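no rush on this but wanted to send it before i forget. theres a chain ive been looking at and ive put its sequence and its fold in token form underneath. please have a look and point out which stretches look like helix strand or loop to you. thanks a lot i owe you, the record is right below:
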Amino acid sequence: MQNKVINVSTDDGHHFDISCYGTKDAKHVLLFFPAMGVEARYYRDWAKSMADVDFLCCISDHRGHGTSSIRPKRGVDFGYQQMIEQDYQAAIYAILNYVGNKKIYLGGHSLGGQLSCLYAGTRNDDLSWLSGIVLIAACTISHSGWPGFQGFMMQFIPHFFSIVVRVVGYFPGKLLKFAGTEARQQMLDWSQSGVDGIYQPLGYKESLDPKMQKVKKPIVSISYEGDDYAPKAAVDHLVSKMTGCDISRIHLTDKNSPKAIRDHFKWAKRQPEFTTDILIKELNISSKNSNMDTSQ
């Protein structure tokens, strides 16, 4: 069930598609962005499960991946600022125009969740269109939010990745087995947030953390036990920056979820309706098709 593909163009000449699952007159709308290095089509099964509970679920590719007209390489660069101010802005306008300016949810998986929070922070003076924010396995990479040996390693990984992109001119994620081929500045912005513990991407004169604190919208944040890319404490650290929001925080363990979904990526492929039912419950949305007991 893919009902609509929306072609989006940005002011800086970038082109990409948003794949929408569900009907235009669905009761609820979600615009969702992927994890780093992941294409929008990966979330197809989950998006279909969202459509089954009366959502129009719109999955956008990130700059540099999937349907994006840009491919990172030496000399072809972009960072968080371009992704937030160009891509997220254009995608939101496109969806609002398509659905007739009804309110929408914004969110993402991993990096997509982080950038959704940053976008909301930079636009906190005009969020009348926003119903809430959906975060799935989205966390900070500051070592203080990571437990044990992971926290120890996260003191070094951002520095190492920064050296790699400065030498190579882009991030060879496939070679390093982390993410995909990513832009130099995108990875420098990613690393900056890990080293400094705050979000201040290139192009912003001050930290965006105080702006994130001014957002006053409901947030649903889901994490999975055993997720080495987004451990519970690191996910908690991200939502702790959204101090003005009403936060529903769900951590799935062996006591309240099947093992098959407790993975940074597999939640979208294996029993995707499980995560969908949790979102429906936590967003206080009733659905005749959502009947799973997800009590914590």
